[in-house]
Amino acid sequence: MEKMTYRGFLKRYYRSRIERYMFLIESLHAYLPILESNSQKKMNQSLEDLKVMQQKKLDHAYFLTQDPEKRLSILKEDLREKRNQKYYWTLRAIKQKRKRLEAKGDETIAHEARLMEKAALGAIENKIETALNRLSKHPSLSKPLMEKAVYEALEKTLSDAWLNHQQERLNRHQKRLNQEKVKVSKKAEIYQTRLNVLKEKLTHLEGQLLHEETERLEQLSEKKKEDPTYQAMDHAIDHLNAKLRLRENQDIHLTLSHLSMSFAGLKAVDDLSFDVKKGSIFGLIGPNGAGKTTVFNCITQFYKPTSGAIYFKNNKQEVVSLLDYPVHEIIKQGIVRTFQNVELIWELNILDNMLVGAHSLYKSSLLTQLLHLPMLKREEEVVKAKAIRILDSLGLLSYKDFYPLGLPYGILKKIELARTLMTDPQLIILDEPAAGLNDQETKALAKTIKDIQKHHGCTIFLVEHDMELVMDICDEICAINFGKKIAIGTPREIQSHPEVREAYLGGE
Amino acid sequence: MMIPIRRQLKKWIHHPYFGFLIVAFIFVLVQVANTVGLLGTSQVRAIGLTMIYFIIALGFTLLLGYAGLASLGTAGFVGFGAYLLGNVMRVLGLPFIAAILIGILSAIVLGSLIGFISLRIEGMYLAIITLAVSEVFVELFKNAVSLTGGTDGFRIPTLTLFGRTLGILDRAPVYFMLTFFLLLIMIATFNLINSPIGRAMLAIKNSDSAGQAMGVGLLKYRILAFVIATIYAIIGGMLYMMYYRSSIPDTWSLALSLNILAAVIVGGSKSIWGVLIGVFLIFGLDTMVLKDIQFFVTYPNTTLIFSGALIILIVMFYPGGIIKLLVNTKYRIQKMIQSRKEYLYGKDDL
Amino acid sequence: MTIESLLQLFVNGLSESFILMLATMGIVIIFKTSYTTNFSQGMIAAFAAFVVATLVPIFINMIPGIQTVTALILSVFCAVIVAFLMGLFIDTMILRKAKFIHSAGKQIITMGLVLILSGVIPLIFGVIPMTIPFLADTSTAKVFSFFGMRLSMSYHNYYASIIAFVVLTIVFLSLRFTKWGLGVRATASNEIVANMMGVNTRLITAMSWAIAGGLGALAASLYAPNAGSLTPALMNTIQVDAFLASVLGGFTSFYGPLVGAVLLPMTNIYVKYFYGLWSKVIVYSLLLIVVLIKPIGLFGKRIAKKV
User: Fold this and answer.
1) Residues of C in contact with B112 (CB under 8 A)
2) Could you give the number of structural domains in chain C?
3) How far off is chain B from C54, nearest CA to CA, in Å?
4) Predicted ipTM of the assembly
5) CA of A368: how far to CAs of A378, B16, B191, B271, in Å?
6) Chain B residues close to C47, C-beta within 8 Å
C-alpha cells in the first residue's frame, strides 16, 4: 500500500504543508473583509456618538440665541414632551383599564369607565399645566442673549471638529486597512513562494509514481499473457487501469473496481465496478436489500470492503485510494455524506451544527482553543460568515438559532444538506434524500440538488428509492440487485432495461 | 466620553469571564473574612474543600456532559494526584511547579490509556471498568506503604511555596492559590466548551457516525476528553494534599466518585454554573450548614440521603439539572411579568 | 506447595465463589430484564443484613429456648422478604415512573439509591455495631477426605455453600423450566416483542427486581459473619466483584457471569497465596487485560448493529 512507503510519507508531508499554506493564504484573504466591516462599524459608532454630544451643545446654544418669549415657548415644548413621556405609561394603563371595563358589556360600568378616563386625563392635564405655568420662573430665561454670530461661530467650530474627527477616523481606518493589506500581501507572498516550491516537489514525486504505476501495469500485463488463468492478476490489472483512467481522464471523479463486501460469508456487494463522471448526478438504485447502503458505507469507509478498490480524484487533484483512509479523514478528501435518518446534533443549535460541519477546516491547535487566542476568534468569524451565507442561500437563515428538536422533517433534511456544503466538497453522497418527503417536497429537493450541483460544481452521488426523483435529475444511473450490477446508463436506458424492470420496476 | 465608556463597561459585565471573576472574588473575600476573624476556620476549610471538588467536577462535566462517557474512576485519580504531590514535594523535595508538570504528564498517560479502553468498551461497561481501575488505585494506596503511608495516612507538616515556608496551620496562602487555580480552570473549561473541540465532543456524543463523517476522529476526541478530565482530577488531588496536608486511602472511595457524579447531574451536566450549584448542594451543605445541627452530628450519613434523593428526583423530573430549573423559572417569571404588563398596559408594542 | 495445599485453597475459595454467584445472579437477572446495571444491589443486601442482625436477638428474646441457628434462619427469611419487597418497590415506584429515560438515567437512579440507603441504614439501625452469627460453631471445622488428602472447611462456609448451591440451582431450573423463567428469557431478549406475545413484562421485571433483592439479602447474610461488624459498606467489594464477574463472563448470557463469579475469587485466592498483599491489584489488572482482549466477555455473543 502506498501509505506505508517512504514516498507515501513524503507525499503526505508535502500535502499537509501545502494544505497549511493554502489555508493560511485563504484565511488571510477571508478575514480582510470581516476586519474591514468591523472597523467600519466602530468608526461609524464613534462618529455617531460625537454627533449626539455635539447636538446637545448646539441645542443649548440655539436656545440662548432666542429672546425670552421664544425661550419660554421652547422650554414649554420641552417640558410638555418630557411630561408626555412621564405620563405615557399612566395614560396607557388608564386607557387599558377603560377598555377592560367596557369589554364587560355592562353599559353603566362602561359609562363610568369613560368618565373615569376623562377625569384622569383631566387631572394629568392640570398637572402639566401647573408645571408649565411654573416655568415662567425658570432661571435659564434670564441668561444673557447669545449673539447670532457667536452661535454661528460655535456651529462652525463644532461642525469643523466633527469633520476633522471624521477625517481622522477615516484616515485611521484606511491606514489600518492598508497596513493589514500590506501585511497580508507580504505574508501571502511568502506563503505563495513556499507553496510553489512544495507544489513542484509534489508534482515531481507524483510523476515518479505515475511512471512506476505504468511500468507495473505493463509488468502485470506481461505476467497475464504468460499465465492467463491467474484471476487475481485480472483484478489487479483492472485496479491499475482504473487508477490510470482516473489520472488521465479529466471527466471521471470516482471509480469503483471489483468492489466486494461480505459479512460473515454473506455477500452484500459482489464485484461491483463503475465510474462516476465529474460534475454529474449519479444515481444508485436497487430494491430493498440490494446492497446500496453497503456500497455507500464502503465508499465512505464506514466499512472496509472485503476486496476491490475505490479510487477518487480528491480536492487536490490527485488520485487516491479511499481504502487508505479512516472514516474521519474522508471528508478531507472532499467527500461528504448525508444520513438516511437525519443525523443532526440535537444538543446544538442549527448554526452550531453548521459549524461542526466545518470542523475539518479548523486549524487552531488545542492550546489556541483552550486559551481562545485571536486566531480561533478569526477562524470562528470566517466559518460563521460562511455558514450564514450557505443557510441564506438555501432559505434557512431564520432557523439559525433554533434547536433541531421539533423542526419539520423537510427542514431538517435541508439543513443536513446545507451542512455538507460547509467544506466546499467535490462529491456529495446522499443517502435516500427523499425518504419521508411527499411529492411536493421531493420536487423542491430535486431543484435544490440541481442548484447545488450548478452553483458549487460538485458531483452528486445519490442512493435512492424514489424513482421519480432519480429519473428526473440523474445523468447516469446504476442499478444493482443482490449486490451485483445489473445495468448502468442514462435514465432512459435504465427504464427500458429488461432486467431492471423485472427486479425493480415490476416488469411494466 | 461617557457614552463609549458606558458601552464598554456594559460589554465587560456581560462577558462570561466576568461572572467567574466575581465568584473568585467572593471566595477570596471568604478567606479574608477568616483571617480578619469574621468567619470560622472550619467554614473556610469546608469552602476550600468544596472548591477542590468543583475543580474535579468540572472535569467530570466535560467527560459526561460533553463527551457522553461514563466513568466511575474519578476518585482513584484524585487520590493519585494527592499522593503524587505528597511524594514529589515532601519526599523528593521538588517545587510545586515540578509537581504540576509531573501530574499533567501522568494524567496524559493515564487518560490516554482509559481513552483507548473506551473504544473497546462502551457505555455502562465502561463505568464498571473504570470502577475497577479506581479500586486498583485504592488497593495500591493501601499497600504501597512506603509511598503512601498506607492506612495510617500521609502527612506533610511543612510546605514550601514560592519561597515561603508554611506551617501546618498556615492555610491561607494555599487557599488563595486554590482560588487562582479555580479561576483558571473555570475559564479553561468555558473556553473548551465554546470552541470547536466542545462542539466536536457533543457531535460524537449525539451521533458518532455523523461526527466521523464530518471529520471528528472518535479515538482522538475520546482520549482528549479523558485526558482533560484526568488532568482536572489530578490537579484537584494535588490541591487537596496541599490544602489538607494529609490523606488516607479511604477518602478515595466509590462514594466520592458517586458524589461527584451526583453534583454534576444535579447541577446540570453541561453548565459550569450548574456544576457550581451542584457541588455546593452535595458537598457544601453538609460540611458547612448542617454540620452544626445535633441531628446530623450523631447521624453523619444522613446528608447522603439528601444527595441520593436529589439525584433521583432530578433524573426523573428535570434531567437538565437545577440550572435548567433556574433558567426555566427565570423565563417563567419573565413571562409572568410580560403578561402582567399586557394586562395593565395593553398589547401594543411594549 | 503440595497438591493438598492447592486443593485446600480451592476449598477455601468455594464459599466465597458461591456467595459471589448469588450476588452476580441478582445483577444479571436485573440487567437482562430491565437493561440496567443495578448499582444499589449491594446496598439493598447490606440493608437486609442489618435487618437480620436486628431480628436475631429479638427472636432469641421472643421465643425462649430457641437455638441461635433457628433464630438466624428465621431472621434471614424475614430479611429476604424485606429485600424482596424493597426490590418490588424500587422497580414499580421509581423505575417505572422513569420509564421514558434511557438506561443511563436508570443507572444513575440506582446510584442515587446507593447514597440514600447508605444514609438511611444508620438512621434506622443506629450506630451501635452489630453482627450476624455464624451458621455453626466456629471452633470445629468439617473435614473431607479426598483421595487420601485432608481438606477442611469451616462449618459455616460448608452450610453456606450448600445453601447457595441449592438456591442457585432452583433459580436456574426455574429459568429453564418454569413459565416465569421463560418470561424472563423472553423479556431479556426483546421486551417489546415479549410484551406483544402476551408476556406480562411489568410483572416479570418487578419479580426480577424482587428476586434479585432476595438473592442479595441471602448473600449478605451468609457473608456478614465473616466480615465482623456490619457497616453499610459491607457488600461494596462483593458488588464490585459481581459487576466485574459479569463483565468478565459476558452480560449476554446467564451462565457466563456465574463462571466469572467462580473465576474471580478463585484466581484471587491463588494469587494471594503467592503474592500476598498485591493480589487484588494483580487480579484486577488481569481482568482488565482479559476484558480488553475480549470486550464482550468470555462467553458473550456479539450482537451486530446496523448503521
Assistant:
1) none
2) 1
3) 18
4) 0.86
5) 11, 18, 10, 22
6) none
